[in-house]
Design goal:
three-stranded antiparallel beta sheet; 25% strand; 6 helices; 28% helix; Rossmann fold; alpha/beta; 2 domains; six-stranded mixed beta sheet
Amino acid sequence: MNTLIECKDLCFAYQDEFVLKNVNFKVYEKDFLAIIGPNGGGKTTLIKLLLGLLKPSQGEIIYKKNLQSLIGYVPQDTSINSDFPIQVIDVVRMGFLQSKWFGFRAKKEQTKEAMEILEKLEVAHLAKKKIGELSGGQRQRVLIARAMCGNPNVIVLDEPTSNIDSRTQKEIYQLLKQFNEFHTIIVISHDISVLLGFASSVLSVNKEAVWHDIPKLDLSLDGHVCEIDILNKMLEKDEK
């Protein structure tokens, strides 16, 4: 498989306290990686390192050539001032914005691409709505659309289904799975159900990191798989 990102002996410390220590893993092309772990375990710090927002204290991150500029990012916080007068289409077009530009104005082809992405995410009818008028699930789809502008190789999402009802959570993961055919997906999630039928691998982060492949489990008669069974299967594999 084609390696897109490799972390080698990665460490990061705030002042003298290590948040991440000796982290080693690879992200492959068209992988769907779920990053799990306790609060304060270093998940978000790891994402910031992958995005280049922080620099490693020790170790290194190796990217496939020109990859770092082709990573889309969906932040965790989708709370938006309801009085902020910006339309959905303008939020999405901001995904084309480059930091060196001033007075950004989207080109016609960029607006067309933004609308096509909104169509894929089934929210094109909201293009002229103010972003503050949308539901949490709708806002999340808009932010995913913004991250997809420019056709990035990798899409990184920090808790993309937090504060969203279970039905909408499943819909968003189903959409991400469709995009996974052409994009590598990295998701931070507290919701272990993301492991069921969506992620191909799991990185458990708690200062250090442990890689797991998703075990294949037989479905019960009602189509339900116990989350504890999944964890036990992964632990059994580690012990072997």
